[in-house]
Amino acid sequence: MKELAMTPSTEPYRFLMFALAIVVIAVLLLTGRVALADEAGLYGPAAPPGSAFVRVFNGSSQSLLGSKIGPEDFNEVPAFEASEFTFLPPGTYTVNAGGSQAQATLKADRYYTAALVNGKLQLLDNARYGNRMKALVMVYNLVGDAPLALKTGDGKTTVVEPVAPGATGQREVNAIKAQFAVYKGEQRLAQARPVTLERGRAFSLFVVGTAAQPTPVWVIN
Fold first, then answer.
1. Is the Cβ–Cβ distance between 118 and 111 less than 8 Å?
2. Run of H or E residues at 20
3. Closest C-alpha among 88, 124, 128, 137 to residue 110
4. Rounded to two decimals, what is the model's pTM?
5. What span, in angstroms and rounded, lies between the C-alpha atoms of 147 and 134?
6. Cβ contacts of residue 123 below 8 Å, gap of 6+?
7. In what order do the strands lie in the sheet with 168-173?
8. CA–CA separation, 86 vs 122, rounded Å?
9. CA 189, 219, 176, 129 torsion-angle sign
10. Interatomic CA distance for residues 8 and 28, integer angstroms
11. Residue 211 CB contacts under 8 Å (≥ 6 apart), including other chains
């Protein structure tokens, strides 16, 4: 009489595979959560739709400490530099910087710069920029009582048309390394340092100092 072959039970094997699957799923979920946490820590929270964006520009030769717009603290802003943009819900806020105070009404999807120049605050705003195929060049005229234009270094081509005092002007341009200069009419006032324009980025040229001796300062976002 033939002996029956003994086959091991498959139940322990199935249990083991099920347990391994649970472990793998748990590891994947944990890894995903850690990655999301790391990404949030790296990039910060995303701005809700309809937010206003605001930063502080320090147009003085000393570091600016303790600037505040509404509930947002900007800590230290070095001389002739700007803070990163932060976002706020649209509304009216109090701006405090360098011992000066002003009221600012922020609208949705606008970019604002609270500029402290000669002890006074100025609020300038721009439309939201989203063209990833071009570089955006912006000029902030924070000196004098005459419009200022941005031209190529040789003065032959106007890049940004004359900008009134206390206002901004802008233009989308191709990515290129270029030399620019600030002009008052046909008079060349100051040369900006060379800059490499990159697609999808905004290049802000703050013109500070005096009408007789303006100083162009680049801030890149």
1. no
2. helix 11-43
3. 128
4. 0.77
5. 25
6. 95, 102, 104, 112, 113, 114, 115
7. 168-173, 135-141, 202-209, 214-220
8. 18
9. negative
10. 32
11. 143, 144, 145, 146
Backbone angles phi, psi at 37, to 5 degrees: -65, -40
Q: Which is nearest to 197 in space by CA: 136, 154, 153, 146?
A: 136
Sign of the alpha-carbon torsion through 14, 20, 26, 28 = negative
Cα separation, 15 vs 1, in Å, equals 35
Tokens of 100: 């000066």
Q: Which two tokens stand for residue 27?
A: 């590891």
Q: Spell out the residues 6+ positions from residue 85 whose beta carbon is closer than 8 angstroms to its own.
A: 53, 54, 55, 111, 221
Mean pLDDT over residues 209-214, rounded?
Answer: 84
Mean residue pLDDT of the chain comes to 83
Higher pLDDT, 16 or 208: 208
Q: Model confidence over 122-158: pLDDT tens digits?
A: 999 987 777 789 999 999 999 978 999 999 988 999 9
pLDDT classification of 20: cutoffs 50, 70, 90: low
Amino acid at 92: T
Answer positive or negative: Cα dihedral of 143, 148, 150, 151: negative
The DSSP output letter for 62 is S
Tokens of 122: 């100025």
